[in-house]
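User: Can you model how iron/sulfur cluster sits in this protein?
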Amino acid sequence: MSILFTPVRIGSVTVPNRFVRSATHDFMADDEGNVTDANVELYRRLAEGEVGLIITGHAHVQPSGKASPRQTAVFDDRFVEGLARIAEIVHRFPSRVFLQIAHAGRQTKEKLCGCAPVSPSAVYDPVSKVMPRELAAEEIGALIAAFISAGARAKKAGFDGVQVHAAHGYLLSSFLSPHTNRRQDEWGGPVENRARVLVEVLRGVKSACGRDFPVIVKLNSTDFLEGGLVLEDAIRVARIIEGEGIDGIEVSGGMAEAGRGSVWAGLRGEDEEGYFVENAARIKQAVHVPVFGLGGIRTLAVAERIVREGRADLVSLSRPLIRDPFLVKHFRDGLTGKSECISCNKCFNPRGIRCAELTKKR
Ligand SMILES: Cc1cc2nc3c(=O)[nH]c(=O)nc-3n(C[C@H](O)[C@H](O)[C@H](O)COP(=O)(O)O)c2cc1C
Ligand code: SF4
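Assistant: Here's the modeled complex, given as C-alpha coordinates:
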Protein backbone atom coordinates (compact mmCIF):
# COMPACT_ATOMS: atom_id res chain seq x y z
CA MET A 1 0.00 0.00 0.00
CA SER A 2 1.29 3.42 -0.89
CA ILE A 3 2.17 5.59 2.09
CA LEU A 4 0.95 8.56 0.02
CA PHE A 5 -2.65 7.54 0.51
CA THR A 6 -2.46 7.24 4.28
CA PRO A 7 -3.75 10.03 6.53
CA VAL A 8 -1.54 12.42 8.47
CA ARG A 9 -2.27 14.85 11.27
CA ILE A 10 -1.41 18.53 11.02
CA GLY A 11 -2.00 19.71 14.56
CA SER A 12 -5.62 18.95 15.36
CA VAL A 13 -6.60 18.29 11.74
CA THR A 14 -6.45 14.96 9.93
CA VAL A 15 -5.49 15.23 6.27
CA PRO A 16 -6.74 12.21 4.29
CA ASN A 17 -3.58 11.69 2.22
CA ARG A 18 -0.07 13.09 1.82
CA PHE A 19 -0.74 15.28 -1.22
CA VAL A 20 -0.76 19.03 -0.71
CA ARG A 21 -1.69 21.65 -3.21
CA SER A 22 1.08 24.16 -2.58
CA ALA A 23 -0.16 27.76 -2.42
CA THR A 24 -0.87 29.03 -5.92
CA HIS A 25 -1.96 32.57 -6.70
CA ASP A 26 -4.64 32.18 -9.36
CA PHE A 27 -5.32 35.73 -10.69
CA MET A 28 -9.03 34.96 -10.26
CA ALA A 29 -10.23 37.33 -7.51
CA ASP A 30 -11.96 40.51 -8.59
CA ASP A 31 -10.07 43.80 -8.69
CA GLU A 32 -10.95 44.46 -5.03
CA GLY A 33 -9.65 41.06 -3.88
CA ASN A 34 -13.05 39.38 -3.46
CA VAL A 35 -13.45 35.68 -4.15
CA THR A 36 -15.18 35.01 -7.48
CA ASP A 37 -17.09 32.06 -8.94
CA ALA A 38 -13.90 31.15 -10.84
CA ASN A 39 -12.03 30.80 -7.52
CA VAL A 40 -14.74 28.62 -6.07
CA GLU A 41 -14.77 26.36 -9.13
CA LEU A 42 -10.97 26.03 -9.00
CA TYR A 43 -11.12 24.83 -5.38
CA ARG A 44 -14.07 22.57 -6.07
CA ARG A 45 -12.05 20.78 -8.75
CA LEU A 46 -8.99 20.38 -6.48
CA ALA A 47 -11.14 18.90 -3.72
CA GLU A 48 -13.03 16.65 -6.12
CA GLY A 49 -9.60 15.63 -7.40
CA GLU A 50 -8.80 14.32 -3.90
CA VAL A 51 -5.96 16.66 -2.93
CA GLY A 52 -5.51 15.95 0.81
CA LEU A 53 -4.64 19.49 1.87
CA ILE A 54 -5.34 22.49 -0.32
CA ILE A 55 -3.43 25.68 0.45
CA THR A 56 -4.92 28.73 -1.22
CA GLY A 57 -2.98 31.34 -3.14
CA HIS A 58 -1.43 34.06 -0.98
CA ALA A 59 -4.03 36.41 0.46
CA HIS A 60 -2.71 39.82 1.47
CA VAL A 61 -3.15 40.88 5.08
CA GLN A 62 -2.77 44.62 4.47
CA PRO A 63 -3.50 46.67 1.33
CA SER A 64 0.23 47.52 1.22
CA GLY A 65 0.97 43.80 0.94
CA LYS A 66 -0.75 43.26 -2.40
CA ALA A 67 1.69 41.48 -4.71
CA SER A 68 -0.31 40.92 -7.81
CA PRO A 69 -3.41 41.84 -9.78
CA ARG A 70 -6.58 39.90 -8.99
CA GLN A 71 -5.08 38.61 -5.75
CA THR A 72 -7.40 37.39 -3.00
CA ALA A 73 -7.54 39.79 -0.04
CA VAL A 74 -8.01 39.10 3.67
CA PHE A 75 -7.21 42.52 5.13
CA ASP A 76 -10.78 43.37 6.12
CA ASP A 77 -13.85 41.62 7.57
CA ARG A 78 -15.72 42.29 4.34
CA PHE A 79 -13.72 39.52 2.63
CA VAL A 80 -14.84 36.79 5.06
CA GLU A 81 -18.11 36.03 3.27
CA GLY A 82 -16.36 35.34 -0.05
CA LEU A 83 -13.55 33.35 1.58
CA ALA A 84 -16.17 31.21 3.32
CA ARG A 85 -17.35 30.04 -0.12
CA ILE A 86 -13.93 28.40 -0.64
CA ALA A 87 -14.02 26.60 2.71
CA GLU A 88 -17.60 25.51 2.13
CA ILE A 89 -17.01 24.04 -1.33
CA VAL A 90 -13.87 22.16 -0.23
CA HIS A 91 -15.68 20.71 2.79
CA ARG A 92 -18.18 18.95 0.52
CA PHE A 93 -15.23 16.57 0.01
CA PRO A 94 -12.77 14.93 2.47
CA SER A 95 -10.04 17.51 1.63
CA ARG A 96 -8.87 20.08 4.17
CA VAL A 97 -8.12 23.70 3.23
CA PHE A 98 -5.74 26.30 4.69
CA LEU A 99 -5.63 29.98 3.75
CA GLN A 100 -2.15 31.28 2.95
CA ILE A 101 -1.70 34.71 4.55
CA ALA A 102 0.99 36.99 3.18
CA HIS A 103 2.46 40.42 2.68
CA ALA A 104 4.45 41.22 -0.48
CA GLY A 105 6.95 43.53 1.21
CA ARG A 106 9.25 45.08 -1.41
CA GLN A 107 8.26 42.61 -4.14
CA THR A 108 5.44 44.75 -5.48
CA LYS A 109 4.87 48.12 -7.12
CA GLU A 110 3.36 51.31 -5.83
CA LYS A 111 0.64 51.15 -8.49
CA LEU A 112 -0.44 47.74 -7.20
CA CYS A 113 -0.32 48.29 -3.45
CA GLY A 114 -1.18 51.99 -3.41
CA CYS A 115 1.84 53.14 -1.39
CA ALA A 116 5.61 52.96 -1.32
CA PRO A 117 6.47 49.26 -0.87
CA VAL A 118 7.80 48.45 2.59
CA SER A 119 10.63 46.28 3.86
CA PRO A 120 12.56 45.65 7.10
CA SER A 121 15.34 47.85 5.67
CA ALA A 122 15.65 50.14 2.66
CA VAL A 123 17.42 47.66 0.37
CA TYR A 124 16.85 48.18 -3.36
CA ASP A 125 15.11 45.36 -5.23
CA PRO A 126 16.57 45.12 -8.75
CA VAL A 127 13.67 42.96 -9.96
CA SER A 128 10.72 45.14 -8.95
CA LYS A 129 13.06 48.16 -9.35
CA VAL A 130 11.79 49.37 -6.02
CA MET A 131 13.65 51.19 -3.27
CA PRO A 132 11.39 50.22 -0.37
CA ARG A 133 10.63 52.30 2.68
CA GLU A 134 11.96 50.91 5.95
CA LEU A 135 9.15 49.98 8.32
CA ALA A 136 9.07 52.06 11.50
CA ALA A 137 9.02 50.06 14.76
CA GLU A 138 5.35 51.10 15.43
CA GLU A 139 4.37 49.81 11.99
CA ILE A 140 5.77 46.37 12.79
CA GLY A 141 3.18 46.05 15.59
CA ALA A 142 0.44 46.91 13.09
CA LEU A 143 1.83 44.37 10.62
CA ILE A 144 1.76 41.60 13.24
CA ALA A 145 -1.78 42.62 14.22
CA ALA A 146 -2.82 42.43 10.55
CA PHE A 147 -1.52 38.85 10.25
CA ILE A 148 -3.35 37.92 13.46
CA SER A 149 -6.62 39.46 12.22
CA ALA A 150 -6.17 37.62 8.93
CA GLY A 151 -5.78 34.33 10.83
CA ALA A 152 -8.94 35.07 12.81
CA ARG A 153 -10.82 35.85 9.56
CA ALA A 154 -9.64 32.56 8.06
CA LYS A 155 -11.03 30.71 11.05
CA LYS A 156 -14.30 32.65 10.88
CA ALA A 157 -14.57 31.80 7.17
CA GLY A 158 -14.33 28.10 8.01
CA PHE A 159 -10.76 27.31 6.93
CA ASP A 160 -9.13 24.37 8.71
CA GLY A 161 -5.95 26.34 9.35
CA VAL A 162 -3.62 28.99 7.97
CA GLN A 163 -0.23 28.99 6.34
CA VAL A 164 1.96 32.00 7.08
CA HIS A 165 4.01 32.89 4.00
CA ALA A 166 7.63 33.33 5.06
CA ALA A 167 9.28 32.39 1.78
CA HIS A 168 10.29 33.72 -1.63
CA GLY A 169 11.43 37.18 -0.52
CA TYR A 170 8.00 38.39 0.57
CA LEU A 171 7.85 40.49 3.72
CA LEU A 172 8.21 37.84 6.45
CA SER A 173 10.88 36.10 4.39
CA SER A 174 12.67 39.43 4.02
CA PHE A 175 12.64 39.81 7.81
CA LEU A 176 14.36 36.41 8.07
CA SER A 177 16.97 37.31 5.46
CA PRO A 178 20.10 39.16 6.57
CA HIS A 179 20.30 40.59 3.05
CA THR A 180 17.02 42.50 3.33
CA ASN A 181 16.92 42.85 7.11
CA ARG A 182 19.77 45.11 8.27
CA ARG A 183 17.93 46.51 11.26
CA GLN A 184 19.81 47.28 14.44
CA ASP A 185 16.77 47.02 16.72
CA GLU A 186 15.10 43.94 18.22
CA TRP A 187 13.73 42.95 14.77
CA GLY A 188 17.15 42.60 13.14
CA GLY A 189 20.60 41.12 13.74
CA PRO A 190 20.82 37.53 15.02
CA VAL A 191 18.44 34.99 13.57
CA GLU A 192 16.36 34.98 16.79
CA ASN A 193 15.64 38.67 16.19
CA ARG A 194 15.00 38.24 12.47
CA ALA A 195 12.46 35.50 13.32
CA ARG A 196 10.69 37.65 15.92
CA VAL A 197 7.93 38.93 13.60
CA LEU A 198 7.14 35.38 12.52
CA VAL A 199 7.11 34.22 16.15
CA GLU A 200 4.81 37.09 17.19
CA VAL A 201 2.46 36.28 14.30
CA LEU A 202 2.39 32.63 15.31
CA ARG A 203 1.76 33.41 18.99
CA GLY A 204 -0.92 35.95 18.08
CA VAL A 205 -2.82 33.68 15.69
CA LYS A 206 -2.72 30.85 18.24
CA SER A 207 -3.99 33.14 20.94
CA ALA A 208 -6.77 34.60 18.74
CA CYS A 209 -7.86 31.31 17.17
CA GLY A 210 -7.10 28.77 19.90
CA ARG A 211 -4.14 26.40 20.33
CA ASP A 212 -5.88 23.74 18.26
CA PHE A 213 -6.31 25.92 15.16
CA PRO A 214 -3.44 24.74 12.93
CA VAL A 215 -0.84 27.25 11.87
CA ILE A 216 1.83 26.16 9.44
CA VAL A 217 4.55 28.12 7.70
CA LYS A 218 6.06 28.19 4.23
CA LEU A 219 9.70 28.78 5.00
CA ASN A 220 12.59 29.82 2.79
CA SER A 221 15.43 27.36 3.27
CA THR A 222 17.86 29.46 1.25
CA ASP A 223 17.69 32.78 -0.59
CA PHE A 224 20.39 31.68 -3.09
CA LEU A 225 21.88 35.09 -2.45
CA GLU A 226 25.29 36.17 -1.21
CA GLY A 227 24.65 37.51 2.30
CA GLY A 228 21.13 36.11 2.32
CA LEU A 229 19.42 33.44 4.42
CA VAL A 230 21.13 30.04 4.39
CA LEU A 231 19.94 26.58 5.37
CA GLU A 232 21.52 26.78 8.84
CA ASP A 233 19.41 29.91 9.54
CA ALA A 234 16.29 28.13 8.33
CA ILE A 235 17.00 25.14 10.59
CA ARG A 236 17.37 27.52 13.51
CA VAL A 237 14.07 29.25 12.61
CA ALA A 238 12.36 25.87 12.29
CA ARG A 239 13.46 24.94 15.82
CA ILE A 240 12.33 28.30 17.20
CA ILE A 241 8.87 28.10 15.67
CA GLU A 242 8.48 24.48 16.70
CA GLY A 243 9.05 25.65 20.27
CA GLU A 244 6.24 28.19 19.73
CA GLY A 245 3.72 25.59 18.60
CA ILE A 246 3.93 25.62 14.78
CA ASP A 247 1.96 22.67 13.36
CA GLY A 248 3.91 22.05 10.16
CA ILE A 249 6.65 23.47 7.94
CA GLU A 250 6.59 23.57 4.14
CA VAL A 251 10.14 24.01 2.91
CA SER A 252 10.71 26.21 -0.12
CA GLY A 253 13.43 28.61 -1.20
CA GLY A 254 14.58 31.28 -3.62
CA MET A 255 14.18 34.99 -4.08
CA ALA A 256 13.50 36.74 -7.39
CA GLU A 257 16.49 39.02 -6.85
CA ALA A 258 18.82 36.00 -6.76
CA GLY A 259 17.78 35.08 -10.30
CA ARG A 260 16.69 31.80 -8.76
CA GLY A 261 13.14 31.85 -7.46
CA SER A 262 10.90 29.09 -6.20
CA VAL A 263 9.28 27.99 -9.47
CA TRP A 264 12.02 26.39 -11.54
CA ALA A 265 11.49 26.00 -15.26
CA GLY A 266 12.74 23.37 -17.66
CA LEU A 267 12.93 20.38 -15.30
CA ARG A 268 13.84 17.17 -17.04
CA GLY A 269 13.94 13.73 -15.54
CA GLU A 270 13.32 12.28 -12.12
CA ASP A 271 16.71 13.28 -10.72
CA GLU A 272 15.68 16.96 -11.01
CA GLU A 273 12.43 16.42 -9.13
CA GLY A 274 12.03 17.63 -5.56
CA TYR A 275 14.55 20.45 -5.80
CA PHE A 276 13.90 21.67 -2.23
CA VAL A 277 13.41 18.21 -0.73
CA GLU A 278 16.99 17.81 0.50
CA ASN A 279 16.57 21.05 2.46
CA ALA A 280 13.24 19.74 3.76
CA ALA A 281 15.01 16.56 4.88
CA ARG A 282 17.61 18.59 6.77
CA ILE A 283 14.89 20.59 8.49
CA LYS A 284 12.94 17.41 9.23
CA GLN A 285 15.96 16.05 11.10
CA ALA A 286 15.80 19.09 13.39
CA VAL A 287 12.08 19.13 14.25
CA HIS A 288 9.24 16.75 15.10
CA VAL A 289 6.33 18.50 13.37
CA PRO A 290 5.25 17.39 9.86
CA VAL A 291 7.47 18.71 7.07
CA PHE A 292 6.24 19.28 3.53
CA GLY A 293 8.64 18.65 0.63
CA LEU A 294 8.27 20.41 -2.70
CA GLY A 295 9.81 21.69 -5.89
CA GLY A 296 9.21 20.02 -9.23
CA ILE A 297 7.71 16.78 -7.91
CA ARG A 298 6.05 15.18 -10.92
CA THR A 299 6.31 11.40 -10.54
CA LEU A 300 4.31 9.20 -8.19
CA ALA A 301 7.29 6.94 -7.52
CA VAL A 302 9.47 9.95 -6.61
CA ALA A 303 6.79 11.25 -4.23
CA GLU A 304 6.47 7.79 -2.69
CA ARG A 305 10.24 7.58 -2.10
CA ILE A 306 10.35 11.04 -0.51
CA VAL A 307 7.76 10.11 2.10
CA ARG A 308 8.77 6.48 2.56
CA GLU A 309 12.43 7.40 3.09
CA GLY A 310 11.35 9.99 5.67
CA ARG A 311 12.68 13.05 3.82
CA ALA A 312 9.27 14.71 4.17
CA ASP A 313 5.88 13.77 5.59
CA LEU A 314 3.81 15.31 2.81
CA VAL A 315 4.51 16.27 -0.79
CA SER A 316 3.36 19.60 -2.19
CA LEU A 317 2.53 20.26 -5.83
CA SER A 318 1.56 23.44 -7.62
CA ARG A 319 1.98 23.30 -11.40
CA PRO A 320 0.98 19.63 -11.80
CA LEU A 321 -2.39 20.55 -10.26
CA ILE A 322 -2.79 23.45 -12.68
CA ARG A 323 -2.15 20.99 -15.46
CA ASP A 324 -4.60 18.49 -13.95
CA PRO A 325 -6.56 19.21 -10.77
CA PHE A 326 -7.55 15.52 -10.73
CA LEU A 327 -3.95 14.26 -10.72
CA VAL A 328 -4.10 12.84 -7.18
CA LYS A 329 -7.26 10.90 -7.99
CA HIS A 330 -5.66 9.69 -11.23
CA PHE A 331 -2.61 8.54 -9.26
CA ARG A 332 -4.85 6.71 -6.80
CA ASP A 333 -6.87 5.08 -9.56
CA GLY A 334 -3.65 3.92 -11.24
CA LEU A 335 -4.49 5.90 -14.39
CA THR A 336 -1.09 7.60 -14.48
CA GLY A 337 2.23 7.56 -12.64
CA LYS A 338 3.46 10.98 -13.75
CA SER A 339 2.19 14.50 -14.24
CA GLU A 340 2.22 15.79 -17.80
CA CYS A 341 3.43 19.19 -16.58
CA ILE A 342 6.64 20.13 -18.43
CA SER A 343 7.53 22.99 -16.05
CA CYS A 344 7.43 25.61 -18.82
CA ASN A 345 5.88 28.21 -16.46
CA LYS A 346 3.41 29.44 -19.07
CA CYS A 347 0.59 29.03 -16.54
CA PHE A 348 1.24 32.47 -14.98
CA ASN A 349 -1.69 33.96 -16.86
CA PRO A 350 -2.95 37.33 -15.56
CA ARG A 351 -6.43 36.42 -16.77
CA GLY A 352 -6.45 33.33 -14.54
CA ILE A 353 -3.97 30.46 -14.20
CA ARG A 354 -4.30 27.76 -16.79
CA CYS A 355 -2.03 25.26 -18.47
CA ALA A 356 -0.92 26.79 -21.77
CA GLU A 357 0.26 23.40 -23.01
CA LEU A 358 -3.20 21.95 -22.53
CA THR A 359 -4.85 24.88 -24.29
CA LYS A 360 -2.42 24.37 -27.21
CA LYS A 361 -3.43 20.71 -27.53
CA ARG A 362 -7.15 21.48 -27.80
C1 LIG B 1 1.08 30.20 -10.90
C2 LIG B 1 1.82 30.02 -9.61
C3 LIG B 1 1.45 30.79 -8.52
C4 LIG B 1 2.10 30.61 -7.29
N1 LIG B 1 1.66 31.31 -6.21
C5 LIG B 1 2.20 31.07 -4.98
C6 LIG B 1 1.66 31.68 -3.82
O1 LIG B 1 0.65 32.38 -3.86
N2 LIG B 1 2.27 31.43 -2.64
C7 LIG B 1 3.36 30.58 -2.54
O2 LIG B 1 3.88 30.38 -1.44
N3 LIG B 1 3.88 29.98 -3.62
C8 LIG B 1 3.32 30.18 -4.83
N4 LIG B 1 3.80 29.51 -5.93
C9 LIG B 1 4.90 28.53 -5.75
C10 LIG B 1 4.34 27.13 -5.55
O3 LIG B 1 3.57 27.02 -4.36
C11 LIG B 1 5.44 26.05 -5.48
O4 LIG B 1 6.18 26.29 -4.30
C12 LIG B 1 6.36 26.05 -6.70
O5 LIG B 1 5.62 26.26 -7.89
C13 LIG B 1 7.11 24.72 -6.84
O6 LIG B 1 6.22 23.63 -6.94
P1 LIG B 1 5.83 22.93 -8.36
O7 LIG B 1 7.12 22.52 -9.03
O8 LIG B 1 5.00 21.74 -7.96
O9 LIG B 1 5.10 23.92 -9.18
C14 LIG B 1 3.17 29.66 -7.17
C15 LIG B 1 3.52 28.91 -8.28
C16 LIG B 1 2.85 29.06 -9.48
C17 LIG B 1 3.25 28.19 -10.64
S1 SF4 C 1 1.78 25.80 -18.48
FE1 SF4 C 1 1.13 23.69 -18.08
S2 SF4 C 1 2.92 22.42 -18.57
FE2 SF4 C 1 3.66 24.54 -18.37
S3 SF4 C 1 4.29 24.69 -16.19
FE3 SF4 C 1 2.18 25.40 -16.30
S4 SF4 C 1 0.95 23.58 -15.85
FE4 SF4 C 1 3.00 22.86 -16.37
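A couple of observations from the model: The two ends are 36 Å apart (CA to CA). The pocket of iron/sulfur cluster (ligand 2) is lined by residues 319, 322-323, 341-347, 355-357 (CB under 6 Å).
User: Helpful, thanks.
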